[in-house]
Amino acid sequence: MIDERNTAPYAAALLRISQGLLFLAHGAILKLGTFGLAGTMGFFGSLGYPPALGAVVIAAEILGGLALLAGVAVRWVSLGLLPVMLGALVQHSGNGWLFNAPGGGWEFPAFWAAALVVQAGLGAGAWALDARRLAGGRRMAAA
Predict the structure, then answer these.
(1) What is the total count of domains within the chain?
(2) Of 4, 78, 83, 119, which is the most exposed, with the fewest CB atoms less than 10 Å away?
(3) In terms of pTM, does the model score above 0.85?
């Protein structure tokens, strides 16, 4: 039998670290490294959004990814990244269900949005800087 009191902090940490790595990769490698700042801003402009929103999304994904990896302000960061994923969901909604559809489908951003809500509910979990700092030397359960 699984003891949730012992496994939940590690499950939350696995979700947090996975999301952190993927947000960091998506913002730094895909948007910034592959398309560049100007390319990303141009893409956002071509969709009818203010081009500066592309820079905001890059910053949110990179800084949010780093915060999730470190376990800092995880609940707030998860909720803060939610509009990014909801925006992606809206953008991909007309392309159908599967993400391998032309233009990418909406199931991947929908899953990301759900995972962010779950992370916000769970908190940072194990191995988080917030848990150590806020505990003041005491062991915290599931930050």
Answers:
(1) 1
(2) 4
(3) yes
